Amino acid sequence: MRTETLDRSRGGMWPWLGQRVTAVVIIVTIMVHLVLTHFVAIGELSYDNIGERLATTAVLVNDVLLLVAVVYHALNGVRMVVLDWGLSGKGVRRGFDLFLWVVGILGIVYGIWALWVWVS
Q1: Is 89 left (phi over 0), alpha (psi -120 to 50) or beta?
Q2: Total-model pTM
Q3: Residue 12: φ, ψ to 5°
Q4: Domains plus CATH for the chain?
Q5: Structure letter (DSSP) for residue 11
Q6: Residue 75: is it exposed, middle or buried by C-beta count within 10 angstroms (0-12/13-18/19+)?
Q7: What are φ and ψ of residue 40, in 5° steps?
């Protein structure tokens, strides 16, 4: 039973563990984001004020961590669904994994680029 659950053709142990860890990271970082946004930085809600909030290290680190966790969690979930549909062949699976990694890295780079305006 255990080998069936952790079989690579069904996803593998590390993606399974990564899904659980990123779920916890997402919950924690969303809670931190809400606290930092709504309770610590109380004030006028304007474009400049939001820029000042995003320029602080705590908010920026939290948002980048949230971005990375959400992208990994989402794309790993897509991978699991596609594997459940019966994606066969080791080469096809590796190609799909590579595609998801490229999409994920591009998404993270784009997200950090969008946040970088507030840092520089």
Answers
A1: left
A2: 0.83
A3: 100, 165
A4: 2-119 (1.20.1300.10)
A5: T
A6: middle
A7: -80, -45
